[in-house]
Amino acid sequence: MGAWRDTHDRSLSDPEGFWREQAGLVSWFVKPTVVLDRSRAPFYRWFPDGRLNTCYNALDRHVINGRAEQTALIYDSAMTGVRAKFTYAELLEKVAAFAGALRAFGVGPGDRVVIYMPMIPEAVIAMLASARLGAVHSVVFGGFAAAELAVRIDDAQPTVVVSASCGLEPGRVVAYKPLLDRALALATHQPRVVVVKQRDELEADLVEPRDVDWDTALRAGGSDPAGCVDVAATDPLYILYTSGTTGRPKGIVRDNGGHAVALTWSMPHIFDTSAGQVWWTASDVGWVVGHSYIVYAPLFAGATTVLYEGKPVGTPDAGAFWRVIEEHRVEALFTAPTALRAIKKEDPSGERVQDYSLASLRNLFMAGERLDPETYQWATEILGVPVIDNWWQTETGWPIAANLRGLDPLPLKAGSPSVPVPGFDIQVLDEHGNVLQPNNEGAICLRLPLPPGTLTTLYNDDDRYVSSYLSAFDGYYLSGDGGYIDDDGYVFVMGRTDDVINVAGHRLSTGSIEAVLAAHPAVAECAVIGAADQLKGQVPRGFVVLKAGQQIDPEVLAKELVASVRNEIGPVAAFKDVSVVSALPKTRSGKILRRTMREIADGTDAPIPSTIEDAQVLEALRPALRKD
Ligand code: COA
Ligand code: AMP
């Protein structure tokens, strides 16, 4: 534990010295002389007088330093069978051309570019092109519906929206353009231009002059490729919306400098991956895991990153991941536990593994949700490589707790993402803010300042940043997760303490689903809980109370509500389960006892809270919760 402990201790006792050294991993146009500006605490700023460009660090510098002909990006679509490889030089050329196009459409430093795209190379190109111009991208996951996209467009106020004609899901082509058109009809803000990548599977209708085909846009800008605009380290690189406890998403703001330093540091030290190696994150660019570990970190490191359009199962079978590993000689795979559970369900004894050579694979990294010990054991057995959990959030942008494979590989413990990553001072607090002793469960918090790469604020909402994260315990960031630290310093993350749920590694707010249910004319009140699910970790379950005198058939109502959630939030919510009940259990102050409901649904014998208003209501609900 020597190297990890020493490095971690140093990062906390001398953060300025530690991160000054790590800043040397990045190419700067103006090297920072100040490492950490504490003058506006709790709004800390890393490398405030440094200037750089994120795209330069991802592409240009590798081309200049002899990696021009190395593959930067491998696109592998299990949906269409297409494979494509881009060298660093080729990717740079495409990014510079598209940046030229964006610039021609009026995008400049600080302007926002919303990207609503499936897993195709153009999504990565659009992100990097935005970074190249010093603009701020905001990628919206394709599984979100028009209304969610509209909220993000109104908040981010993009100059340009970049999209595609369709995404491909097993058995269905998802037409993106009608969703985008509906979102723009709902939104108050209108972009100047919408760029659409037309895919072979579906041609979108373009409405001139607002809509421009990707290839036409490229021709417009391609004759004048854009160079890198240098920005302040503290300027925003992207906004990524994530679910909070209310229906309104939070726009997490990431800076350029801290992000580049932290992510570049993370690749060799946490993920034991460096230049020239093949790295694959099976996630989606719409999530933070995709931002950090499909796009930015592997490219900062000069590695080869795989962009996979497909699923772990059904495209075509449970050997899909192993096929990709063999075909591209992947050395490290990073995915979510749900993906493994899906494979395990179809191929419990891991027979498909035998059909492929996984000789290249050295590590399997897991994040996005708790890695349950059963899935951990299963993956370890069938793959024969270390299966390494790491815990983090959209807010932090990179792992808070991990087993640092490059710095100091420690013994793995099932159920724990291992130890605090250098830069993160993890403490478990009780409800009064006292630091708990080892093995006591409480709120997992991070002592301020947070390290580089973590959120700097919420977009246009400093107050909400403070009230959501910094006001619960003075001097700490509240992670929203509960858990404990054991005697060896290993962190155990047991789940959210708020109303955020995690469905197949996708973060959702029960509040936003409740808002959709409550809007139905027959519904008087409702509650949504995240119930344990064998495959997806959690799934949302809705409980609705009808308005007095409502005669609607419960089955008809359930169908309507399921359709509304799909329509308003998106298929990704996986909302399929609604029960009509006569009343909801509440405290005397009127708060719905969602946690108690969840515990009963999950089969634990939860004690009935002393604050309950009417215990009979809970008893009456018990069979519905337990599905007796
Ligand atoms: N665009 C449009 N629709 C999408 C979508 C996208 N980008 N991604 C998912 N959806 C849809 C799916 O088609 C599905 O629709 P359906 O209800 O019509 O079947 C719904 O959203 C739920 O999708 P998903 O969560 O993918 O569930 P699934 O049952 O189709 O597949 C898994 C289950 C386990 C295979 C899948 O969840 C998975 O691969 N998970 C990995 C998790 C992951 O990568 N998380 C990222 C964070 S690290
Ligand atoms: P997101 O912001 O979408 O990445 O979701 C972050 C949330 O997912 C965290 O707050 C946790 O609740 C959960 N999570 C992510 N990774 C892990 C992990 N390795 N172990 C336990 N929970 C995790």
Question: What is the gist of this entry?
Answer:
By secondary structure, this protein is of the alpha/beta class.
Under CATH, the topology of the largest domain can be stated as Rossmann fold
The level 1 CATH classification of the largest domain is Alpha Beta
Task: Name the overall outline.
Answer: globular
Instruction: Please state the second-level CATH architecture of the largest domain.
Output: 3-Layer(aba) Sandwich
Proportion of β residues? 15-25%
The major beta sheet can be summarized as: 7 strands, mixed
Would you kindly provide a written description of the structure presented here, covering whatever features stand out?
The structure is a single chain. The protein has 628 residues and is α/β, with parallel strands linked by helices. The protein has 2 domains: 2-310 and 390-483, ANL, N-terminal domain (Rossmann fold, 3-Layer(aba) Sandwich), CATH 3.40.50.12780; 504-626, ANL, C-terminal domain (GMP Synthetase, Chain A, domain 3, 2-Layer Sandwich), CATH 3.30.300.30. The chain is 32% helix and 24% strand. The chain has 18 helices and 32 strands. The chain has a 7-stranded mixed β-sheet, sandwiched between helices. Strands 7-6-8-11-12 form a 5-stranded parallel β-sheet, with helices on both faces. A 4-stranded antiparallel β-sheet has the order 23-24-26-27. A hairpin with a 2-residue loop joins strand 9 and strand 10. Helix 1 crosses helix 2 (15-23), helix 4 (88-104) crosses helix 5 and helix 9 (257-269) packs across helix 10. The protein is globular and about 70 Å long. The N and C termini lie far apart (49 Å). Coenzyme A binds at residues 118, 142-143, 167, 169, 174, 283-284, 287, 289, 311-313, 336, 338-339, 342, 368, 504-506, 571-572, 574.
